[in-house]
Amino acid sequence: MAKKTHFICFCLFLSLAISSLMQVVMAEAHEVGGLKLFVFGDSYADTGNCPKSMAGSWKEPYGITFPGRPAGRFSDGLVLTDYIASFLGIPSPLPYQWRKFGKKLRPFGMNFAYGGTGVFNTLVKEPNMTCQVNFFQQLIEEKVYTKHDLTSSIALVSVGGNDYATYMASNGSQQVSG
Ligand SMILES: *[C@@H]1O[C@H](CO)[C@@H](O)[C@H](O)[C@H]1NC(C)=O
Ligand SMILES: *[C@@H]1O[C@H](CO)[C@@H](O)[C@H](O)[C@H]1NC(C)=O
Q1: What is the largest CA-CA distance in the chain?
Q2: Which keywords are on file for this protein (predicted)?
Q3: CA of 119 to the centre of ligand 1 (A)
Q4: What's the pLDDT tens digit per position in 32-68?
Q5: Distance between CA atoms of 9 and 2, rounded to whole angstroms?
Q6: CA distances for 94 relative to 25, 36, 40, 117, 144, angstroms
Q7: Distance from C-alpha of 172 to C-alpha of 178, rounded to nearest angstrom
Q8: pTM for the structure as a whole
Q9: Residues enclosing ligand 2, CB less than 6 A?
């Protein structure tokens, strides 16, 4: 019984600590002009960067729960990016590929994640982590985002396993016999 109470107290303390930390981060972000979320990685985070002509994410059953039709997410509903953005109280950041059409969403950050990618090159042709970071750097050089913006930014990096999958696909037999 006592142990259980301690555990509950600890959890309560932890959630209070996290929520007050978030409040500090969000209050500071508010002062310097809006919290931004920048996202890098793979299909756990991609919200529509992979091209329609190439990716299964634009076909059913993806998207049937949200937004109701396939729209570039590798999920029938929301992905990690959407949940983190909603936790921060901002709209899901604009996919990099749509940057010219969705200017209104730019103030909330941008999503550079491409499904199927990894830190190294994988079996898909989409930009790896280095390229994604370079896209972001380019936008900073073009002053789409300022260095000042970065003080109110959060980065989400998702590396779910495509690097491992690529290794297994090319060197899998070696792995099994080893
Ligand atoms: C990432 O992609 C670029 C462009 O294709 C390539 O030059 C670079 O070597 C890749 N980086 C890694 C770590 O594989
Ligand atoms: C597979 O093994 C070869 C030989 O050891 C190596 O050169 C190659 O980089 C490996 N492939 C991957 C994707 O790691």
Answers
A1: 60
A2: Hydrolase, Lipid degradation, Lipid metabolism, Signal
A3: 9
A4: 458 999 999 999 999 999 998 877 899 999 999 999 9
A5: 11
A6: 21, 11, 12, 19, 13
A7: 10
A8: 0.80
A9: 166-167, 170-171
